[in-house]
Specification:
Strand order of the largest sheet: 6-7-8-3-9-10
Number of helices: 13
Strand content: 15-25%
Mean pLDDT: 81
Shape: globular
Order of helices and strands: HEHHEEHEEHEHHHHEHEHEEHH
Low-confidence stretches: 1-34, 67-83, 313-325
Number of strands: 10
Structural class: alpha/beta
Helix content: 40-55%
Bound molecules: adenosine-5'-triphosphate
Distance between the termini: 79 Å
Length: 325
């Protein structure tokens, strides 16, 4: 058994490597707004241009088994549950009205990212329906879905290509002027202008390395070039320095203006401003409402608020010192 165990462990490591490669493919698809295994129906219809409404109707979801295996290791018993396709969303119902900003909150593993991925059809629901602009996303043309929805995640991918090429994935016909305008809106034009090769600077491991906050602003520039009517935003949990954080916030204010937004929220300012907060736990919405009401209700949100959101540091009182002449 020990002799078998060694190769098996080695195999499971290989699988993890192969699967991380697949995960990177996922990211590429995310950037190009295409999803593997998702097909357009022959009679697919366009989502009306400018649509801002998102509707979840009793959505149930289990990850497909191939993706389940990607997280499994032989030692991980919980991963074995996943290979059975454990339900991740169990009857999620909500509507985001055009122009609203809705915050999705909940403990780790509650299903927030999964919910957001069903909107852009990274996966299809197991039961129920997700509608964008009144069209079930499974009946929509992929191009109209791609044009309607923009996604900004914490680790948006940059290709080992020039800055201009990286941005043109969002809008192939964009002129240099369009790109500068987007970079300005995303609060990163000054930095790019200061680079010796400007827009032609090659990015990535063997090129210019952007910081986390800068990458996020480039992702926002992509969004501004594309101007989708719906934005799905996964707010950064990673620490950004305060200058970068402020720049990202300014860029986001521009990017979200006049659009419908579904935000996986990690910041106090976001939940305070949200038109609606959806609290997910174990694949179900357990509370919904606005910040003050949910705090007053004293349930899971109030608890999350204390532990996740209300952590903005209060200034330390100055230590008491006796005055010495
Ligand atoms: P976090 O705040 O930690 O990002 P989350 O609320 O976004 O968590 P999800 O990432 O949606 O939660 O995950 C919901 C559940 O689905 C978790 O139990 C997670 O382990 C599982 N899960 C996520 N991705 C996959 C996958 N590709 N295959 C199988 N199970 C998955």
């Amino acid at each position: 058994l020990t002799r078998l165990y060694g190769p098996l462990t080695a195999l499971s490591n290989v699988r993890v490597d192969v699967m991380s490669a697949l995960v990177s493919f996922d990211r590429v698809f995310e950037v190009l707004d295409l999803s593997p295994g998702i097909e357009e129906k022959p009679d697919a219809v366009d989502i009306p241009a400018g649509s801002g409404r998102i509707e979840f109707r009793d959505v149930h979801f289990r990850y497909p088994s191939a993706a389940d295996v990607s997280l499994a290791t032989l030692e991980d018993v919980t991963a074995l549950d996943r290979t059975e396709g454990a339900p991740v969303l169990k009857g999620v119902d909500f509507t985001v009205e055009p122009g609203q900003m809705v915050a999705l909150v909940g403990p780790s593993g509650a299903g927030k990212s999964t919910t957001s991925m069903l909107i852009s059809r990274v996966y299809d629901v197991t039961e129920g329906g997700v509608l964008v602009g009144g069209v079930d996303v499974r009946d929509a043309t992929l191009s109209s879905l791609r044009d309607t929805i923009g996604v900004v995640t914490q680790d948006s991918h940059l290709f080992h290509e020039t800055i201009a090429d990286n941005l043109r994935y969002a809008q192939p016909t964009a002129t240099d002027d369009d790109i500068w305008q987007a970079l300005t809106g995303a609060q990163i034009a000054d930095l790019v202008r200061a680079l010796p090769d400007g827009l032609d600077t090659v990015v990535g491991e063997r090129g210019y390395r952007f910081s986390g906050g800068e990458k996020q602003r480039l992702a926002i520039a992509r969004l501004l070039l594309k101007h989708p009517s719906i934005v799905i935003l996964d707010e950064a949990t990673a620490h950004l320095d305060s200058e970068s954080e402020a720049a990202v916030q300014r860029a986001l204010t521009t990017a979200l203006e006049g659009r419908t937004a579904l935000v996986i929220a990690h910041r106090l300012a976001t939940v305070r401003d949200a038109d609606l907060i959806l609290v997910l736990d174990g694949g179900r919405i357990v509370e919904r409402g606005r910040h003050p009401d949910l705090v007053a209700a004293g349930g899971l949100y109030a608890e999350l608020y204390r532990t996740q959101f209300a952590v903005e540091p209060t200034p330390e009182p100055a230590p008491y010192r006796e005055e010495v002449e």
